[in-house]
Amino acid sequence: MRLPLIIALACAMAAPQAMARAIPDPNQKHAPGNEEPQKPISQAGYSTPVNYQLQCAGCHLGDGTGSRANDTPKMKGFVGNFLKVEGGREFLVRVPGMSQSALNNAQLADLLNWLLRKDGMAGASMPERYQPYTEEEVARVRKVSLLNLPDVRAGLIEQMRAQGIEIDDGMDAAY
Ligand code: HEC
């Protein structure tokens, strides 16, 4: 009767040893051809769509559909509407996903200009005229924290509604 107990005890005592063996060998070398340490994304020189995949798509999904269940708003066919209301242009730079991303200012400007295209994610939501973001503008605007995001967003959505813009992201004014 005692045997199973002893076996269980032996297993419990052996477990930490087994786990210790799983720790990587401190003398381990890089695989051949992979010796260089990984570059931070701000210096890696990836293309803008790759930067989007690495920094944004995890939450916003590849095509910008977002995820209602995770409170992640839809950008696809919608994000351009922010350019039509006062304060929206700055808001797009200051949302945490943008301003606190690991991308540098030039990469962020490129990313915004890539999202905000009539033939891109923003699609038909784009205004007639579009002034592309520059590295300098992003640097200036990014520094200013966005306090009280839900209220700021609600104000922008309200301005959109006043212009008759259809809000169909399923997330209402605030969340
Ligand atoms: C960890 C998840 C996450 C990541 C990563 C992320 N976002 Fe977001 N994003 C959100 C959430 C959640 C919101 C809603 C506002 C908030 O809570 O920040 C949001 C809001 C936004 C908005 C405002 C849209 C609206 O309708 O209010 C934009 C634009 C945006 N993100 C772009 C980006 C871009 C571009 C990147 C990549 C550089 C990015 N986000 C990375 C989760 C994320």
Automatic annotation (TrEMBL):
Residue numbers spanned by region Disordered: 24-44
Which GO molecular function annotations are given, in alphabetical order? electron transfer activity; heme binding
Signal sequence range: 1-20
User: Which keywords appear in this protein's UniProt record, sorted alphabetically?
Assistant: Signal
Keyword Thylakoid belongs to the record? no
Q: Does the keyword Signal apply?
A: yes
Q: What is this protein called?
A: Cytochrome c in methylamine utilization cluster
Q: Where does this protein come from, organism-wise?
A: Metapseudomonas furukawaii (Pseudomonas furukawaii)
